[in-house]
Design brief:
405 residues; Rossmann fold; 2 domains; six-stranded mixed beta sheet; single chain; six-stranded parallel beta sheet; alpha/beta; globular
């Protein structure tokens, strides 16, 4: 296949990965975005972003995009010169691995309609999954290309990629190179490095990269735990440590733990892939994140004085999201803190403006008014501090040292 033959690209899944890719590629190619959620499909066709992402919103408003969204997958697959799979792979706690059933179903459905079209998996999968699908389908043109996107900045990270990685079997070399070149050409950043490898190696890159980020979060959180326990200044210690250029002054702001959709599940999946292989660090990263939540919950309870006045002690949860300017709170670390506080019998209420119209969430009362929220809470916990809390700063418990994500 030569690149000029890739005219119509079908992207399956209108989440952060799928929508950002669809938007990027639609600047140059005809793109059909497939999803089972009618509301998302309708919004995309009206050029309303169903996710909070400033760059996607701007591109929808300002750019000429050859992009349509549809619920009709089979019709789209028949037209496709390339299919990109960007559906969720949630972590199954009972099986200790990703649930890849949706990805497998999509691949089978594509093959039943158009068995010659190349498929690029963008969903995060266990190490060895792509090779398993190649063997199962007897189809060498199934590729894996990991994404390295941040929540609410997904399109930006496609426009200014740190690298482009494509994993493929040698029989699909043309497809891999053409796909990578399209991504590179659609990007704004110049001189993007492209790295080619086996699909299993590309899967490993994704999981090891995210687990290293989880390690870095855990390291600075444990530094903060030590400093707070000893009455030391976390800010000064981190700055002193981070001035070493080998360490760097980035990704070092303490939090309630690493969370979000990727780091918790990816680190657990990597640990699962280690089955039968000696390791210490990977399991310690997963354990450290749980210990951190234990520590945070204890400090909050101490600050609130729950043991002395449980009935009149209301603890407020300020935002459920992991990051500022986000509307996503899937698997946020603060949920683990909430669980621990509830077990201790604390009375909790939530302020989360993205939940307009909801009375409860996680069996907790949602307070719509920020004024009422501030007034009734004895202590307010915030994973990320915002200016809105300045007037009640004495009530706030946060480990946000630097005021950034």
């Amino acid at each position: 296949m030569i690149e000029n033959n890739i005219n119509t690209i079908v992207v399956v899944g209108i989440g952060y990965v799928g929508l950002s890719l669809a938007t990027l590629l639609a600047t140059e190619k005809k793109v059909i975005a497939i999803d089972i959620n009618k509301e998302k499909v309708d919004k995309v066709n009206l050029r309303i972003s169903p996710i909070k992402d400033e760059y996607i919103e701007n591109y929808f408003a300002e750019k000429e995009l050859n992009l349509t969204a549809s619920l009709e997958s089979n019709a789209a697959y028949k037209l496709a010169d390339l299919v990109i799979v960007a559906t969720p792979t949630n972590y199954d706690e009972e099986k200790n691995c990703f649930d890849t059933s949706v990805v497998e179903t999509v691949i089978e459905q594509v093959m039943s309609v158009n068995n010659k079209v190349p498929i690029v998996i963008k969903s995060t999968v266990p190490i060895g999954f792509t090779q398993k699908m190649i063997n199962k389908c007897n189809k060498n043109n199934i590729l894996f290309s990991p994404e390295f996107l941040r929540e609410s900045k997904a399109l930006y990270d496609n426009l200014y990629p740190s690298r482009i990685i494509v994993g493929y079997k040698k029989e699909s070399g043309n497809i891999a190179h053409n796909f990578a070149e399209i991504l590179k050409r659609c990007a704004i950043k110049e001189d993007v490095e492209i790295v080619y490898m086996e699909p299993t190696e590309a899967e490993a890159v994704k999981l090891f990269a995210n687990t290293y980020l989880a390690l870095r979060v855990s390291f600075f959180n444990e530094l903060d735990t030590f400093a707070e326990s000893k009455g030391l200044d976390t800010n000064k210690i981190i700055k002193g440590v981070s001035l070493d250029p080998r360490i760097g002054d980035f990704y070092n702001n303490p939090s309630f733990g690493y969370g979000g959709y990727c780091l918790p599940k990816d680190s657990k999946q990597l640990l699962s892939n280690y089955r039968g292989i000696d390791e210490k660090i990977i399991s310690a990263i997963v354990e450290s994140n749980e210990i951190r939540k234990d520590f945070i919950a204890k400090r909050v309870l101490d600050k609130a004085g729950v043991n002395t006045d449980k009935e009149n002690c209301i603890i407020g949860i300020y935002r459920l999201t992991m990051k500022t300017n986000s509307d996503n709170f899937r698997h946020s670390a603060i949920q683990g803190v909430i669980e621990r506080l509830k077990k201790q019998g604390a009375t909790l209420v939530v302020y989360e403006p993205t939940l307009e119209g909801l009375d409860t969430i996680y069996d907790l009362k949602v307070i719509d008014s920020i004024v009422e929220f501030k007034n009734i809470c004895k202590v307010i916990i915030a994973n990320r501090f915002e200016k809105q809390l300045l007037d009640v700063e004495n009530k706030v418990y946060t480990r946000d040292i630097f005021g950034r994500d």
